[in-house]
Every structure is written in structure tokens, then in C-alpha cells.
């Protein structure tokens, strides 16, 4: 999976306009092949920060996205905000759940839980 994360710190007068433009762009992106999700929101801890995020199934899907005319439109919206955005691409190679915690705690010998019943 590849995630694109964008943050824009905007003056209050620009926030609604940028949010509206990004939300209009998000809807068609969500149905593109390889797209796992696209969302836009205002940061809870800082109302002057608009956040935009896309998740794609693979690097190939993200590469296709970055080369697309719709991505050019995203860049135009970001440039029109008048402040340089923070942009980050995260390449996630593995996702694990609670089994990871058990594995690490057992391997490192830091499991402090009750003794396990072991089959004889």
C-alpha cells in the first residue's frame, strides 16, 4: 500500500475554498482502480490545517495516479493555496495485528502475563 498525505496551513479566509475544491476532487478519485480511499478534513488540533490523504493498493497504482491529469489538478489546487504544502508518500510493505505484539513479547522475553498452558 502507498499513502499520500498532504497538510496545508491556510489563512481562515482560504480554508473553505480549498476544502471545497479538494472534496470535489476526492469523489472521482475514490472509484479509480487501485484506490483504497481518499479523504479531506480539517485538523482537530489546528483549524487552520487542512489535511488530504489518498491510499493506493500499490506503488504502480500510485505512479499511475501521479502521472494522471487529475493529479495535475491536485497540484494546481495546492499551488493556489499560496503556501507550500507538506507532502509525504508512505510506502507500507506490511501490516500486522495483535499477533505481532505476542511475537515480539515472546521473542524478547518480556511477556509478563500469566503462565500459558502448554500441551504435553
Briefly, what is this?
This protein is of the alpha+beta class. The chain has helices at residues 12-30, 59-66, 69-80, 98-107; strands spanning 2-9, 35-42, 49-56, 86-91.
Which helices and strands, and how do they pair?
Elements: E1 2-9, H1 12-30, E2 35-42, E3 49-56, H2 59-66, H3 69-80, E4 86-91, H4 98-107
Helix pairs in contact: 1-3
Q: What is the count of β-strands? A: 4
CATH architecture descriptor: 2-Layer Sandwich
| Main sheet overview | 4 strands, antiparallel
Secondary structure class reads alpha+beta
Strand content: 25-35%
How many angstroms does the end-to-end distance come to?
A: 42 Å
Envelope shape = globular
Low-confidence stretches: none
Strand numbers in spatial order across the main sheet: 2-3-1-4
Q: Would you give an account of this structure?
A:
By secondary structure, this protein is an alpha+beta fold. It has one domain (2-107): Alpha-Beta Plaits, CATH 3.30.70. The protein is 41% helix and 25% strand. The protein has a 4-stranded antiparallel sheet. The model has no long low-confidence stretch (mean pLDDT 89).
Features:
120 residues; alpha+beta; Alpha-Beta Plaits; 4-stranded antiparallel sheet; 4 helices; 25% strand
